[in-house]
Design brief:
Helix content: under 10%
Radius of gyration: 20 Å
Strand content: 35-45%
Number of helices: 2
Distance between the termini: 44 Å
Number of strands: 32
Length: 416
């Protein structure tokens, strides 16, 4: 409680004094696992050409976002027949080290064969989960392999539609993984230092949504939105509290958006005519507050701000809309068409949005409406981008299948 009080006081002081707040982006969906950054003192618009480019580089095939901690970027991608983890200087792009291992993964639906999961950085460890299910721990300073496991082979996990895509979550000393193994290995917890299995639970198939943990009442929960629905576990031992079935009736469908936590409520959403559902967690189970097709997230998780969900509703490029939905009631406040499918993050009071064809947008979204402040075509529209932007220390990173760019979003940057 004292630590939280200090953090709140610092944020309030920074806001009052105009001091810039910087932050790392150590894992999928950022430091708080919800696409929200605490960073401040960022630009509030940019010219038609876009924000200033600091550096850019060609990258290998991947749907993995970079992770950034203390000025070091960790980039996970595929170069020819290897999955490669690179450590770069986040502000210059200069290489520091590289680690690689062979892969023969082939996507069943013709998408690229690179990794889907975002590196997880914690202290002096970096964890990766490859498209074919190889789980590795590297030394963050040197790139040396600390431990590795062929998790899909060991657990006899059937190949998923688009390979392994659920980024792991670090909870204390445990790595929570939606592995999707049969015979009680749907969710597994690995010891972060050794890689050994500490517990395994459920027969839940793997999804593309990442686990998230939260304390509700006096109980700590791990929420895993798997292939067949949402499961609530005790993260310390894997005990199953309850399961909420939630998936499309279509076989060729996926759950890909991560759960959104709001106090004692959990929101889940999926495309393929599935919609969204809000659950209220109680001591012995849950109550369904509402369930409706008002918000059907395909792969991008909705962002919750001040009691309202902002997210992209729809499966295909044509017909997808940006929507605002009141969390408590499921009421549709408004929708904005013609942005196509997008991913976004929130920082400095604004939303940073990247659509699948490389158009970068800065927007102000409130329950009253959507204001697109500025846009810029920053990535090659011939190469789709399904990866959300990453923000760290005032720098914005966006990528598609073949290129990564770093932009300077600091409001007080020195101009040449």
């Amino acid at each position: 409680m004292r630590t939280m009080t200090r953090v709140v006081c610092w944020v309030m002081l920074a806001a009052c004094c105009g001091v810039a707040v910087a932050d790392d982006w150590p894992c999928f969906m950022g430091p708080t696992h919800d696409g929200v950054s605490a960073e401040t003192n960022l630009v509030t618009s940019w010219p038609e050409s876009g924000p200033p480019v600091v550096w850019k580089m060609d990258v290998g095939a991947s749907y993995s976002a970079p992770s950034i901690v203390k000025g070091a970027m960790f980039l996970f991608h595929r170069i020819r027949n290897e999955e490669v983890l690179e450590c770069l200087d986040a502000t210059t792009g200069a290489p520091r080290w590289k680690a690689a291992y062979p892969t023969d993964y082939v996507d069943r639906y013709g998408y690229n064969g690179g990794p889907r999961c975002t590196p997880l950085v914690a202290g002096d460890q970096v964890f990766t989960f490859g498209a074919a299910g190889k789980f590795c721990c590297f030394n963050a300073k040197t790139g040396a392999v600390v431990w590795q496991r062929q998790l899909n082979d060991e657990l006899a996990v059937p190949q998923n539609f688009f390979g392994v895509g659920s980024s792991p979550l670090l909870e204390g000393n445990l790595l929570i993984v939606n592995a999707g193994g049969p015979n009680g290995a749907g969710v597994v917890a690995l010891d972060r230092d050794t890689g050994k299995t500490v517990w395994q639970s459920t027969d839940e198939g793997a999804s593309y949504a990442s686990p998230i943990c939260a304390t509700i009442g006096a109980q700590r929960y791990a929420f895993i939105f798997g292939r067949g629905g949402l499961v609530a576990l005790d993260p310390s031992n894997g005990k199953l509290f309850w399961r909420f079935p939630f998936r499309s009736k279509l076989h060729e469908s996926v759950n890909a958006a991560s759960p959104v936590i709001a106090g004692d409520r959990v929101f889940v959403s999926a495309s393929y005519h599935t919609g969204g559902a809000l659950l209220r967690v109680r001591k012995d189970g849950y109550d369904v507050v509402w369930r409706d097709e008002v918000m059907s997230n395909h792969w991008a998780t909705s962002i919750l701000r001040d009691g309202y969900l902002y997210g992209f509703n729809g499966r295909h490029e044509e017909g997808t809309t940006l929507r605002c939905v009141e969390l408590a009631t499921g009421k549709l406040m408004w929708e904005q068409p013609k942005l196509t499918r997008c991913s976004m993050i929130f920082a400095n009071g604004q939303f940073i949005i990247l659509n699948e064809w490389g158009l970068l947008m800065l927007a102000r979204l409130t329950p009253k409406g959507c204001e697109i402040i500025c846009t810029a075509q920053v990535l090659d529209p011939q190469r789709p981008s399904y990866i959300a932007p990453v923000l760290a220390d005032g720098y914005l990173y966006v990528r598609n299948e073949r290129q990564l760019l770093c932009f300077d979003l600091r409001a007080n940057r020195k101009k040449n």
